[in-house]
Each structure stands twice: as C-alpha cells, then as structure tokens.
Amino acid sequence: xxxxxxxxxxxxxxxxxxxxxxxxxxxxxxxxxxxxxxxxxxxxxxxxxxxxxxxxxxxxxxxxxxxxxxxxxxxxxxxxxxxxxxxxxxxxxxxxxxxxxxxxxxxxxxxxxxxxxxxxxxxxxxxxxxxxxxxxxxxxxxxxxxxxxxxxxxxxxxxxxxxxxxxxxxxxxxxxxxxxxxxxxxxxxxxxxxxxxxxxxxxxxxxxxxxxxxx
Length: 215
Ligand SMILES: Cc1cc2nc3c(=O)[nH]c(=O)nc-3n(C[C@H](O)[C@H](O)[C@H](O)COP(=O)(O)O)c2cc1C
Fold this sequence. Notes:
Structural class: alpha+beta
Number of helices: 9
CATH architecture of the domain at 12-90 and 133-194: 3-Layer(aba) Sandwich
Helix content: 40-55%
Strand order of the largest sheet: 1-2-4-3
Distance between the termini: 42 Å
Number of strands: 4
Bound molecules: flavin mononucleotide
Strand content: 5-15%
Order of helices and strands: HHEHHEHHHEHEH
C-alpha cells in the first residue's frame, strides 16, 4: 500500500482506477474491511432509510462459482473481497416502522413526534409501483457504491465497480431470493497487481467546461 497521506483528494481520485488485475497475495485486514463498511454505512440515502443490504463475499469457493456469471472477469476471484449491494424485494411499511424506531432510539425522542415523517415516507412508497421502488432502492445502492470507492481510494485500497454480472444467477448462487434480496451492483476490493497495465493509463474525462453548466 502506498503512503497517500500527503496527497490531496484530487490526487487520490486520480490514483483510483477501476482495477482489472488484483494482487491475489494481498488481503484487506479486518480493520480495513471494517473501516470501508463503516464508511459505506455512513452514506446518505433518501429519507435516511438505507434501503439496501451489503453482502461481503470472501469465500474462494463461492467466488469461483460466481465467476462464470460475471463474464469470467478475474476481479471476481482475485480481489481480496467482493462487496455486493442488494435491494429488498419486499420493502414495506415495516421497514419504515423499523427506521422510525431507530430514529427515536438514536435521538432519544418519542415515536409519536415522528408521526408526520412516518406518514410522509409511507405515502411516498404507496404511490410507487414495485418497479419504481426497486429502481429507487438501486439508486441509493449506487450512491453507497460511490462512497465506498472514494473511501477506499482515500485509504489506499483499490476497487473495481462491477455491473457486468448476471444478477439473477448471483441471487441464485448466493441464496438471496430466499432472503427477499436482489443484487444490483458490486465492487471488487483489494490491492492492484503491479502488472495491471490499466493503472498507468491516463484518465479519460471530459473537460470540466463540457460537464459543468454554470448558470
Ligand atoms: C456502475 C459501474 C459498473 C461498472 N462495471 C464494470 C465491470 O463490470 N467491469 C469492469 O472492469 N469495469 C466496470 N466499471 C468500470 C468503468 O469501466 C470505469 O470506471 C470507467 O471506464 C472509468 O475508468 P476509471 O474508473 O479507471 O477512471 C464499472 C463502472 C461503474 C461506475
């Protein structure tokens, strides 16, 4: 791991790249993994509902089984860990109730004082189709993926965001259907191989004045 203490955020974000080849001999320490999970848990989400689960996959045998369903991308098996984001296929008012209870406990305020917020969230969910609810959950998961990757870069940990996998197959292999979960996106997390030629490639980005519209 390089010492990135003296780098500013732009230097750290330039250091980050979608890692294709991981060093199979390097594993995240428990502390590093916990730190990334904590950073991911601190992601903002719509209403604060955190409507997704994060599945950490380290087991080699499971990852070998997943690989063919991920276009045989080597990151699937060679990274230290896979961190998979999954939405709830049965998100309901019960999740809102649990969230309201958590706010009440975390902030030490009576549940009754949260009645309006509770009604607002339940009203929001009620007017959406199941498909809309799933898309809305997936958006929250993608924001978390971004926070995970930036946090990793700040810590000198490599990631590859991955959408290139058969979500239905992953759900079957991982038994997510029984848990009423559906995978949406994942990150391979670990340490780059010195042989990964992608790390040396210049970034390809629009000039700022093409991305930004200032009014
Ligand atoms: C949502 C998402 C899904 C992606 N899926 C894959 C993938 O399955 N495999 C892969 O090698 N790279 C994947 N990428 C990486 C992009 O190709 C990469 O971020 C982009 O080319 C910019 O390069 P950089 O991240 O190295 O700067 C994905 C990126 C994002 C944001």
